[in-house]
Write a structure and sequence with these properties.
heterotrimer, B: mainly alpha, ABC transporter involved in vitamin B12 uptake, BtuC, two-stranded antiparallel sheet, 4 strands, C: alpha/beta, Rossmann fold, 2 domains, 6-stranded parallel sheet, 6-stranded mixed sheet, 46% helix
């Protein structure tokens, strides 16, 4: 039995930011031993709501109550004192410090003014055991993988023995095994009487894990209740305000048969890629699927010369002429969208306008031929924003303040201006909300209509299904199988786990 | 892949010691007088005040910032001290306290400009480097002024076989080492240097840490200047000049990265030893005076290059899926 | 493509023209400041404008006092009243420039300036020229322009005279010298001149051999370590040439620590030649540790510059525009008899 009952409620919370009402009289309630799924598109307000609980923002009006008593949460440290822990989506890791430093940076046990290392290790080991991790507290943060780093984030949240833990998209960098482990840990937390709020876009995850659901849209709560009352369709409907099924883009095939634009032969990179052979047709969407570590990203990086290769040839075919092309040169022809949009794609502190136009500034040169025609640039940027439905308050908004989905659209938009024939997209729809996902897929779809060829990598298998014309499955650096667009999830999964095989499977 | 990583890492780490060994052997061969115990004790004596003066600087670099004004703070503090001691005949205890206090205030000012007014540390300390020195000139630092006998007589004092200032310097480095690795403040320092934004998110008071680092830097600049004056018996107009660059070079040679969050205070010992051994050795073998700046610059360059290699190397190690 | 190139070229041309126009305009505004009255007739009163780059050295105090002294003597001799307008720039180049502007606008008859920056002082010279005021650089030369007169020390011959006297001394005592030379900063023209002067006498007289040269960069550390290490690696060294005896105190400390400090005539005396007869050097000579030093003669610098200023202010011309004062050779023997040593008047040493 728990020694104290815990119930948290937020009443009539209103929060406004300049130009936007993020939360409009939101009511929220959770009690101990319950796991609540919080679903909503970006901009729906769920992040803001949780940020208030986490002490990062303060509400304009409305109350927060714990066990009937009104409280205020001034900052993250205060939230922690009140028993609320927040595990963010983005890893907040101090890479050069040890695991135990990352966990205890503000809570070191001290003896005579000096840090008590042995006591610290004991504390860490205990918590790590609680979440089923066997990591060593003395290891450096930078020496463990992102999945493990996320485990440490969770471990850190547990240091203050919280009564409520908020998880924001916790599974984004986890392997299946780690995901299962995470769910096990969360369930155990529930048993210990901790309340959990679980924010996610991946609807499949919440079934079997969560007890309750709350759906938000446009700063308001649309619906909430027990998970049994919320099948997937209902959630999608509540989320988008229309029949979600319409949002599923069934891709029509626009491949021009036998019009190959790219051929890769015997690409090898010792230890990473083995004997890669593939071809890409005009107007085709080629999906590359595989588990984490299968070499999908490495393949794309090798193709565009970001990583070295040991052997292999790449050919590009233009107007019937087959020409060998070096990876570095291929990079000039390809619209490349990387996995890590925060670090590798965008100039974070710069404006949307600059980020959009930067790849194609030559097109904006004015009559002088030397100076940029500002008006022209502005118009083009405006056009792109409209076309991709990027939600911004103005062109000069800083890109780092955009939601993930909108950031992704900016990256795409940048390439659209350049108008390359080929696109290599690595995780273009990862971690963005349902609406944005659909929009991005639409954009890709339209690209193929105009004859562009797309190579797409995604770890979200449901998104790839029904969307690609062909599938290549990778495992441990080799292509293990190739499927036509009729492939099923089971087929892809199976192929990703098997060893190398040749030939097309049906 | 991992094995070559380890090898290169080790090379960068230990390569310095190896190079040092070669240098020592080289000098010893050409000038046997170099390799005497007396010479080494003398060398340690010469470098001791400088070591004290830059030990605080190491903390600032660990936070990922930089302090170009250490030399000027030392000069300013010493100028104030000389004025009090020699002109006003203020008792020694008070003078020495004022020296240290004024140095800390100078450091504090640096911290405020960086953290509150939010000027980048490079520009800030470059400006204060000029300003503090100018201030020192105005207080009369531009002359060769002999210091009072009561202080000057300490220059020959030995503790065991080491000179007093050498012993003090080593003690200081050891204490700072303990602070770096065994106190919460030290951990927070490393956190700020490693990833300031994340540290802030985790609740570390980054501004406060940064300001404290600058104060410490100022403190040791001032404290060290006292030993500097004792050794020469004089206050000199060029005191601390060039310390900004050699200080940072020493910090980098000692393995403390300019990017912050990496390196140990003990590295200062290696760094300064390397630096002074070359200087010392050159004086023993008697090369053309025009070679000195060239070699000094060469070593600084190599050190900085190795430092940047280490960082480039680390980013290549990032785990990929 | 062609179109682009033409555009770029035109752009550059316009840019260059605009730039030239602006700077010319600026120069004109800057220069054509005051209307100046030229008075070719004999004056009964002149005003000397004196611009110090800084004032916090005893040497500069000495200069100023000596100048006043000599001016007074000249007043009595010529029956012309001499007024002074003096300003100090605290080591700030821009401040000095504006100080000189002040002198110009006050309409002084001649300007004496000790430059903080030899290159920047040319701008001030040009302004004075526009205003018709003669301009004399004092102690530090202008770089990049030829002013009306320069009065300063002859650092090369200063070293030569010390070297000659030193050679005499060594030969008289039957000593073959093996010397350590502590040089100044290699970027300092004075320091370079001194080293060359020393080398010249060494080559001609052969009374000693310089076995080790240490660049001190005026760094006190190196005065000390250079001395110690020099003796450690060359134990049979018996003499030293120190670029400036302002650093004598440091060398004295170092010699003391290695047990090589002894006065002239004592056993194990190290023969020391140096330059300047600065305050520590004066003490060194008086105590008999140092042997020879050629003075940086503030007294005579002041005399020459006042004479030159007077001449130019009166509208006459000088025979020689570059007046280099050679300094006097001071030894531990004759130091007590040498008059007008600024170190004696402005230092604290009492025998």
């Amino acid at each position: 039995m728990n020694n104290s009952h815990f119930k948290l409620s937020m009443q009539n919370i209103v929060k406004e930011f300049p130009g936007v009402k993020a939360l409009d009289k939101v009511n929220f309630e959770i009690e101990q031993g319950k796991i609540m799924a919080l679903i909503g598109a970006n901009g729906a307000g769920k992040s803001t709501l949780m940020n208030i609980l986490g002490g990062i923002h303060q509400q304009d009006t409305g109350e927060i109550l714990i066990n009937g008593k009104i409280i205020t949460i001034k900052d993250p440290l205060d939230a922690s004192k009140k028993g609320i822990a927040f595990v963010h989506q983005e890893l907040t890791a101090l890479s050069k410090l040890r695991i135990m430093d990352n966990m205890l940076i503000n809570d070191y046990p001290t003896k005579l003014g000096l840090i008590d290392d042995s006591e610290a290790k004991v504390i860490c080991k205990k918590i790590l055991k609680r979440i089923g991790s066997d990591l060593a507290p003395e290891d450096l943060m930078e020496d463990i993988g992102p999945g493990d780093q996320q485990m440490i984030e969770i471990a850190r949240a547990l240091v203050h023995k919280p009564k409520l833990i908020l998880f924001d998209e916790p599974t984004s960098s986890l392997s299946k095994k780690e995901k299962d482990n995470l769910f096990k840990v969360i369930k155990k937390l529930r048993e210990d009487g901790v309340a959990v709020v679980y924010i996610t876009h991946l609807l499949d995850e919440i079934y079997g894990l969560c007890d309750e659901v709350m759906v938000m849209r446009n700063g308001r709560v649309v619906s909430s209740g027990l998970i049994d009352e919320f099948p997937k369709d209902r959630i999608i409907c509540d989320l988008s305000g229309e029949d979600g099924r319409k949002k599923n883009v069934t891709k029509k095939s626009f491949i021009v048969k036998d019009d190959v634009v790219l051929v890769v032969e015997d690409l090898n990179r010792s230890g990473i890629l083995h004997d890669i052979n593939l071809s890409l047709n005009k107007g085709e969407v080629l999906g590359i699927w595989g588990l984490m570590g299968s070499g999908r990203t490495e393949l794309v990086r090798a193709l565009v010369g970001l990583d070295p290769i040991e052997s292999g040839t790449i050919y590009s075919i233009c107007d019937g002429h087959k020409k060998q092309i070096a990876p570095h040169d291929l990079r000039q022809l390809v619209g490349l969208v990387t996995e890590d949009r925060r670090n590798e794609g965008l100039f974070q502190p710069m404006t949307v306008a600059i980020n959009l136009s930067i790849a194609n500034l030559k097109a904006f040169l004015g009559k002088s031929g030397v100076f940029i025609d500002r008006k022209k640039e502005k118009n083009e940027v405006e056009k792109t924003i409209k076309k991709l439905n990027i939600v911004v308050s103005s062109q000069s908004q800083q890109v780092r303040t955009l939601s993930g989905g909108n950031q992704q659209k900016v990256i795409l938009g940048r390439w659209l201006q350049r108008n390359p024939e080929l696109f290599f997209l690595d995780e273009p729809i990862k971690g963005i909300d349902v609406n944005a996902k659909a929009e991005v897929k639409n954009i890709i779809h339209e690209l193929t209509i105009s004859g562009k060829s797309i190579l797409i990598i995604s770890s979200e298998i449901e998104e790839l299904l029904g969307f690609c014309d062909r599938y290549l499955v990778m495992n441990r650096g080799s292509i293990t199988a190739e499927f036509p667009h009729t492939a099923t999830k089971e087929q892809l999964m199976e192929a990703s786990l098997s060893a190398r095989e040749k030939g097309i499977m049906q | 892949m991992k094995n070559t990583n380890i090898l290169i890492n080790r090379l960068l780490k230990y390569g310095l010691y190896f190079a040092l060994l070669i240098i020592i052997v080289f000098f010893a061969y050409i000038a046997p007088s170099f390799i005497t115990a007396n010479n080494f004790i003398d060398m340690l004596h010469t470098l001791a005040p400088n070591l004290i003066m830059i030990s605080g600087l190491a903390f600032v670099v660990l936070t990922g910032a930089i302090d170009f004004s250490v030399g000027s703070i030392a000069f300013l503090a010493a100028s104030i001290g000389t004025y009090l001691m020699v002109v006003q005949k203020v008792p020694l205890i008070i003078t020495l306290s004022v020296i240290v206090l004024s140095a800390m205030i100078a450091g504090f000012l640096n911290g405020i400009i960086v953290e509150v007014i939010k000027v980048n540390p490079l520009i800030t300390t470059f400006g204060t480097m000029l300003a503090y020195r100018g201030l020192g000139y105005m207080i009369g630092g531009a002359k060769y002024t002999p210091i009072p006998e009561s202080l000057a007589q300490l220059h020959n004092v030995k503790i065991g076989f080491l000179y007093m200032d050498t012993a003090v310097a080593i003690l200081i480095v050891v204490i700072l080492y303990l602070i770096q690795y065994r106190t919460v403040f030290g951990r927070h320092l490393m956190a700020v240097g490693n990833d300031r934004e994340n540290a802030r998110k985790l609740g570390v008071k980054t501004s406060s840490i940064s300001i404290r680092a600058f104060v410490i830097s100022g403190f040791f600049a001032g404290f060290g200047s006292i030993f500097y004056m004792i050794q020469g018996g004089y206050m000199t107009p060029r005191m601390g000049q060039g310390l900004e660059f050699t200080g940072i070079a020493i910090v980098v040679i000692g393995g403390i990265s300019l990017f912050g969050g990496e390196g140990s205070i003990l590295g200062l010992l290696t760094g300064i030893f390397t630096f002074y051994i070359v200087e010392n050795g050159l004086q023993h073998i008697g090369v053309s005076p025009y070679i000195y700046p060239f070699l000094r610059g060469g070593i600084i360059f190599l050190a900085m290059y190795a430092d940047s290699l280490k960082t480039k190397f680390h980013s290549l190690r990032k785990v990929r899926t | 493509m062609r179109k682009n190139r033409i555009k770029i070229f035109t752009g550059l041309l316009i840019f260059v023209l605009v730039f030239v126009a602006c700077t010319t305009a600026a120069a004109e505004t800057f220069g054509a400041d005051e209307t100046v009255s030229e008075e070719p007739t004999a004056k009964s009163e002149i005003t000397i404008g004196l611009s110090w780059n800084r004032k916090d050295l005893q040497l500069i105090e000495a200069w100023e006092d000596y100048m006043a002294l000599h001016a007074k003597a000249l007043e009595d001799e010529k029956g012309v009243t001499i007024n002074w307008v003096i300003n100090v720039a605290d080591g700030d180049v821009t401040r000095q420039a504006s100080n000189i502007e002040d002198l110009i606008s006050q309409g002084v008859d001649v300007i004496i300036a000790r430059a903080e920056d030899g290159a920047a002082i040319c701008a001030s010279y040009n302004a004075a020229k526009e205003a018709g005021i003669p301009f004399i650089t004092f102690d530090r030369e202008a770089q990049g322009c030829t002013v009306d007169a320069h009065v300063g020390a002859d650092s090369f011959n200063q070293a030569v005279s010390a070297g000659e006297a030193f050679a005499d001394l060594l030969e008289a005592n039957g000593v073959k010298g093996k010397c350590i030379e502590l040089l100044g900063d290699l970027r300092d023209q004075n320091a370079v001149n001194r080293s060359e002067g020393w080398a010249k006498v060494e080559a001609e007289r052969g009374a000693w051999e310089t076995v080790l040269q240490v660049p001190t960069e005026y760094n006190p550390d190196i005065f000390i370590s250079g001395t110690k290490n020099g003796f450690a690696s060359n134990p049979d060294v018996n003499c030293m040439f120190i670029v400036t005896d302002a650093g004598w105190g440091l060398v004295q400390n170092a010699l003391d620590e290695i047990g090589k400090l002894a006065k002239t005539g004592e056993e194990g005396h190290i023969w020391i030649a140096s330059q300047d007869v600065d305050i520590p050097g004066y003490q060194g000579l008086m105590e008999g540790y140092m042997d020879v030093s050629t003075s940086y003669d503030a007294y005579y610098h002041a005399l020459e510059v006042v004479k030159a200023a007077y001449t130019l202010a009166m509208g006459e011309s000088l025979e020689n525009n570059i007046i280099l004062v050679p300094g006097r050779v001071v030894t531990s023997e004759n130091v007590r008899d040498t008059t007008d040593l600024w170190a004696r008047d402005y230092g604290d040493y009492q025998e």
